[in-house]
C-alpha cells in the first residue's frame, strides 16, 4: 500500500471539504455522503477514509470554516486601519468566508467554541466599534451593542443573498459597508 505524504493528504482533505460545503449549501441536509463523494469525483470509501462519518465531516467543515474566518479577521489589520476601512475589511472577511463555506452554521457549537468565537471574532469586532464610538466616527446616540446587532443583521441578510447567488462577495461587502456607514438615504450634496 502506497503511503501518501501529509501535504497530499491535507490537499485532498481540503478539496473534499470544499466540495462538501458546496454540496451541503446546494442540497441541504438531504445531501448524503455518497452525493458528496460523487461531486468530489472520489469513491465513497475515499471520503470515509478521510471522514469516518457524517459528524466527523461536519466537525471538519466547522473547523475549516472557523479557521478561515478567524484568519481573515486577524489578517484584516483592524487595529491599524481607520474605522471606516476597518469596517470594510471586517465585512469582506465575514462575507468572503461565508461565500466560500456557504450554508454552514458557524455559531452553534459548544461553550468552548463560544469562548473561542468571542475571543477571535467578537472581541476584534467590538474593539473596532468601540474605537469608532470613542473617536466620534460613529453616532453617540446609539450604543455600541446596538450598532453591532444592526451590523450583524446586515451581514446575515447579505450573506444569505451571497449563498443563494443573488449577490457577489464584493457587491455584498460594499453594500453592507456603505449602508451601515452612510444609511440608505441619498446624500443631499449629490
From TrEMBL:
Signal peptide: none annotated. This is TetR/AcrR family transcriptional regulator. Gene3D superfamilies: Tetracycline Repressor, domain 2. InterPro entries: Homeodomain-like_sf (IPR009057), HTH-type_TetR-like_transc_reg (IPR050109), HTH_TetR (IPR001647), Tet_transcr_reg_TetR-rel_C_sf (IPR036271). Residues 10-69 form the HTH tetR-type domain. Keywords: DNA-binding. Pfam families: TetR_N (PF00440). Residues 32-51 bind DNA. SUPFAM superfamilies: Homeodomain-like, Tetracyclin repressor-like, C-terminal domain. Transmembrane segments: none annotated. The keyword Coiled coil does not apply.
Amino acid at each position: 500500500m502506497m503511503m501518501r505524504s501529509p501535504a497530499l493528504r491535507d490537499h485532498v482533505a481540503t478539496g473534499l471539504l470544499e466540495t462538501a460545503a458546496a454540496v451541503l449549501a446546494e442540497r441541504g441536509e438531504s445531501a448524503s455522503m455518497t452525493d458528496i463523494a460523487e461531486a468530489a469525483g472520489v469513491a465513497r470509501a475515499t471520503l470515509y477514509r478521510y471522514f469516518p462519518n457524517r459528524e466527523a465531516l461536519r466537525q471538519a467543515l466547522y473547523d475549516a470554516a472557523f479557521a478561515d474566518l478567524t484568519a481573515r479577521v486577524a489578517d484584516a489589520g483592524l487595529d491599524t486601519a481607520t474605522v471606516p476601512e476597518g469596517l470594510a475589511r471586517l465585512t469582506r472577511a465575514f462575507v468572503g468566508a461565508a461565500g466560500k463555506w456557504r450554508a454552514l452554521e458557524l455559531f452553534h457549537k459548544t461553550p468552548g467554541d463560544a469562548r473561542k468565537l468571542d475571543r477571535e471574532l467578537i472581541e476584534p469586532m467590538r474593539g473596532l466599534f468601540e474605537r469608532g464610538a470613542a473617536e466620534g466616527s460613529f453616532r453617540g446616540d446609539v450604543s455600541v451593542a446596538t450598532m453591532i446587532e444592526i451590523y450583524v443583521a446586515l451581514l446575515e441578510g447579505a450573506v444569505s443573498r451571497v449563498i443563494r447567488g443573488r449577490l457577489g462577495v464584493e457587491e455584498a461587502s460594499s453594500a453592507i459597508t456603505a449602508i451601515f456607514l452612510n444609511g440608505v438615504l441619498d446624500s443631499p450634496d449629490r
